[in-house]
Write a structure and sequence with these properties.
By secondary structure, this protein is an alpha/beta fold. It has one domain: Rossmann fold, CATH 3.40.50. Helix content is 37%, strand content 18%. It is built from 5 helices and 6 strands; from the N terminus they run βαβαβαβαββα. Strands 1, 2, 3, 4, 5 and 6 form a 6-stranded parallel beta sheet that branches. Helix 3 links the parallel strand 3 and strand 4. The longest helix has 23 residues. The radius of gyration is 16 Å and the shape is globular. It binds flavin mononucleotide. The site of flavin mononucleotide has 13 residues, from loops.
Length: 194
């Protein structure tokens, strides 16, 4: 069983990530992947403090983090074999809430692949390029394929609601990303088990 976690990278009211995640989960389920479980993780459900521990996450053993919410977050990340991060662009970078979630645990990310579905004026590309560097430090494997959605606000109506089928144009690209993610997910899972 390969366990894929989709992580919503923003928490603000009216966030676009919330509209991307169901589409992405649908792409995964319509791909009818054998032996694969997909779960959406919402950072709103894990209100971690801004990192405030004296012990470095990379020094923590067996998920014994000093904060209860972080321990719950770590347990979810430990279950995963691969990640898809829904990544907005904030000020040419990534949202602080996402970076904090990445910083807060360590071993649970290690030796697992990650891909990004991003959005923003230039498709969130600047956020993703930074996230790739961060993920390498966490001993993750950022894969090449990803989905970049330019000007997401143009896909929404005046109330900010995604227009019907507006993300369908990205389905093929997302399927390609999934193929690469699964390959790396299976390879690294096998390698971790050796
Ligand atoms: C604090 C902040 C900074 C932003 N900076 C950028 C930016 O540098 N480049 C960009 O393309 N979009 C930027 N945006 C627009 C976001 O890409 C857009 O609002 C997107 O929907 C934010 O993701 P979210 O809705 O999931 O929070 C910014 C939005 C916020 C809230």
């Amino acid at each position: 069983m390969l366990n894929i976690k989709i992580i919503l990278g923003s928490t603000r009211p009216g966030r676009f990530s919330e509209q991307v995640a169901p589409w992405l989960a649908r792409v995964c389920s319509e791909a009818q992947l054998d032996d694969t479980a997909v779960e959406v993780l919402d950072l709103r459900d894990y209100p971690m403090p801004f990192f405030d521990q004296s012990v470095l996450p990379s020094h923590v053993v067996d998920g014994a983090y000093g904060n209860e919410v972080v321990r719950a977050w770590a347990a979810k990340i430990r279950e995963a074999d691969a990640f898809i991060i829904v990544a907005p662009e904030y000020d040419h970078g990534y949202p602080a809430v996402l970076k904090n979630a990445l910083d807060s645990v360590y071993a649970e990310w290690n030796k697992k692949p990650v891909s990004f579905v991003s959005y923003g004026g230039v498709g969130g590309a600047r956020s993703v390029e930074q996230l790739r560097l961060v993920s390498i430090e966490l001993q993750m494997v950022p894969i090449r394929a990803g989905v970049n959605i330019p000007n997401p606000w143009l896909l929404c109506d005046e109330k900010g609601v995604l227009k019907d089928g507006a993300l369908d144009q990205y389905t093929k690209v997302a399927e390609g990303m999934l193929t690469q993610l699964l390959w790396w997910g299976q390879m690294l899972k096998a390698a971790r088990e050796v």
